[in-house]
Amino acid sequence: MTDPMVQAQIIALKSVCREIGAKVTGDDMVRQPTAARLLGFAQKTLSNDRAGQRRWRVVKRGRTVFYPLADLAQWLVENAKDE
């Protein structure tokens, strides 16, 4: 069972994707440009991360790299700044 905070973050990320016109796959994944935008990073940062420490799980389909929204949401929740 997924953490309620992560579930809420997934819903928020899907909403942002709809607002910016980004496609979310049927299995709740987004392409690298969208993931970078959702996380507030440059695409190059995500590329470098894939080659190094791998903060996020990636799925390659052909030459296209996808990021699961659940993993992005989990990272955002874990790294949220206390306000």
In short:
The protein has 4 helices and 3 strands.
Give a written overview of the molecule.
- The chain has 83 residues and is an alpha+beta fold.
- The chain has one domain (4-78): Orthogonal Bundle (Multidrug-efflux Transporter Regulator, Chain: A, Domain 2), CATH 1.10.1660.
- Helix content is 53%, strand content 13%.
- It has a 3-stranded antiparallel beta sheet with strand order 1-3-2.
- A hairpin with a 2-residue loop joins strand 2 and strand 3 (64-68).
- Helix 1 (4-20) crosses helix 4 (69-78).
- The mean pLDDT is 90.
List its traits.
single chain, three-stranded antiparallel beta sheet, 3 strands
What is the count of distinct domains? Answer: 1
User: Main beta sheet, described?
Assistant: 3 strands, antiparallel
Gyration radius over CA = 12 Å
Spell the H/E element sequence: HEHHEEH
Measured between the Cα atoms of the first and last residue, the distance is: 27 Å
Helix content percent band = 40-55%
Form type: globular
- How many distinct helices? 4
What is the CATH top level name?
Answer: Mainly Alpha
Name the structural class. alpha+beta
CATH architecture descriptor name: Orthogonal Bundle
Kindly estimate the percentage of residues that lie in beta strands according to DSSP.
5-15%
Q: Might you state the CATH topology name?
A: Multidrug-efflux Transporter Regulator, Chain: A, Domain 2
- Round the mean pLDDT to the nearest integer and report it: 90
